[in-house]
Every structure is written in structure tokens, then in C-alpha cells.
Amino acid sequence: MALDLTRKQFLKQLAGVTAAAAALPSLSEVFAAQPSAPPASTKNLKWAYMDHWSIVTPRGRSSPYASMKQMERYVRQLSVLGFTGFDTFNFRLPALMGMFGSMKGFERFLHDHGFEKFTGVFAAYPDSGKARAIHVRENHDAIFAEFEAAMKACEGLAVENFVMMPANTYWQVEPVTDEKIKIMADLWNRVGRMTKEQHGVKLSSHHEFWCAISRPEEIDKFYQWTDPRYVYYWCDTAQTVIAGQDPTELYNRYHDRTAGFHFKDTHNTDLNGEYHLPPDPELIAPSVKRWFWEMGTPQGKVDFPKLMTALKQHNYRGWITVEHDKVDVDNASFAESTSIAKWYIDNVLSKIYT
Q1: Which region among 10-14, 319-323, 340-344 has the lowest average model confidence (pLDDT)?
Q2: Mean predicted confidence (pLDDT) in 146-159
Q3: Which of 49, 152, 252, 332 is least enclosed, having the fewest CB within 10 Å?
Q4: Which CATH number fits domain 42-351: 3.90.226.10, 3.40.50.2300, 3.20.20.150, 3.60.20.10?
Q5: What is the pTM for the complete model shown?
Q6: DSSP characters for 301-342?
Q7: One-letter-per-residue 3-state SS of 97-159
């Protein structure tokens, strides 16, 4: 049971715990000496972390992928906070295989640090580029082959979800017509059938606010034209609010197709149509410096208690992924943002549904 600490008290206490964890030679012995965790089936919700992270060093920001030492420090910090699942991007798979010899090696590394599993992979094609325009049927074979290669790299792992953005950026696709949505739906039906039938992995659609399938009527048509056996809904709370929608309403509508969540907050809604802007509205929107924030900030616009109540009503069981996207835009700390979010989970959300 979470202690009723203030956020300030929690961060102060966590600083000592994190420092101690970073100094440990290995956490595998610690976990072996502790009583076994309750079976996963006894918990409705489990918490994963999406692989956004950078570290402030005297030489500037550095990635956990820069060295094994930094990677281990990163994973230990997530572990002591209580995360037991790890999601990453498909473009990071080669780096992980290089560091650990294989994805199996990385999974063993996660297990040694108290994680239950490597839970998911995320892929997107924001730039249509050469042969990556999703609304062009001739590009489908190449895109399908990349998803197939990522699944083969994760063969034998306990991955549950392959999350994708269903379209390129809005400005590269508009006008977004029914014909284009149907073409994109055809691709993801094909990919989803492959991931589900050959690998047992759910393909889930994640709708960025600047994605060409992000307006209510576009999302509705997309789910009408995709097969519910093969294409699932992935709820990103902040992206949905920025696009002027209510994530709880979308979850209620698609709860029987929901495979998971990205929990993060925002302080802004796109009132100026900046989702149209090239090349990347997340980085160059004139009116907003930083779109994404951790849960627990006073200015947050996502109603997380309302969403958690809906999860309880629909008896959702599975993973919720905490995501901190582009924290470094504001030169903030990923470690602090993640700690604040976990404080909010333990002291607010867990009292509604666990």
C-alpha cells in the first residue's frame, strides 16, 4: 500500500533510494532474497515505462544507450520506482541487440533488475519519405516487411503489443479522404493479422494529435474499416486531449478493442490548428514550447481519475505505460518527471483502481 506522502516528501525519499540503487553491484540477489511477488493474475493493472530518457552530464545530455553503465543506472531507477514492464521503439532494437547480444539477452537483463517482461514495441512513420507514405498502396510491402523484421527480432519474448501510428503527419496526407483511410486500414489489417497469428502480438493504433488519423470522424472510420481481431486501440491520454477530445470517451467507445495506454499529461489543447504544421508540430508549434508533461502537475488537462474510474467499470486488466515525451525540450529531468508520475500513481490513481 502506498504511503500518504506529499510529492516533495516522496522526491526527497526517492533521491536516497535511487542513489543507493545506482551503487548496488547487482539487483538480482536482492530480488532473489525477497518474498516472491504476487502472481500477475492477482493484479488488475501493471505499470510499464516507455523508453524516453536522457541524462544531464557535464558534457550535455547523454543517452542510456551510450554505455552499459548508463543503461544499468537508467533501468535501476525505473525498477526502484516499481515499474515492471519496459516498452521501446523499433529503431532501438538494433542498439539493444548490439549491447546485449540479442533481444533475449536484453530480456534477461530486465529480469535481473526486477522487471517482469519486455512488454512492447512502438513504430511510426511521421515522414512519408521514400516509399513510406502509408496512404499509398504501393508502399505497403516495404512497410509490412519492416514490421515483420521487428517481430522476428523479438521472437520468443513475452512482447504483448506492437504499437504504431496509423498515418504519416497530417500535412503530408491532407486532404484526408475516405479512400486514403481505407488504404491505410488495409495495410494495418494485413500487418495485424501477421503479428497476431504468427507471433501472438496485438497491433495497436496510437493517434498523435498531428497524425492524419486524429480527428473524431477519421478515428471512427478507421476502426470501422479495420478488423477488430487484428487492429486494436491504444489510448495516449495527452495526444487525445491536445486533439480536443476526451480520452475517457474514446476509451469507453473502444474499450473492447483497447490494448493499452500511454499515460502522460498536457497543459495545452491545440486551438490554432497547429497539427497541420510541417515538419513536426510537437517541436515547432509557435504557441506551445512543451506539449507533454508528467501526471501530477497542477496545470494538467487530462482527467486521470475519471479515466481510472472507467477502467474499473470496464474491468480493464493489463499494462499501463507511463510515457514522458520530449521532457528535454524544456531542459527538465526525466528522472524527476518519472518520480512525480509514480508518486501520482501510488498516491492518487491506485486509490481508485489497482
Answers
A1: 10-14
A2: 95
A3: 152
A4: 3.20.20.150
A5: 0.88
A6: ---HHHHHHHHHHTT--EEEEE--TTGGGGT--HHHHHHHHH
A7: HHHHCCHHHHHHHHHHCCCCEEEEEEECCCCCCCCCCCCCHHHHHHHHHHHHHHHHHCCCCCC
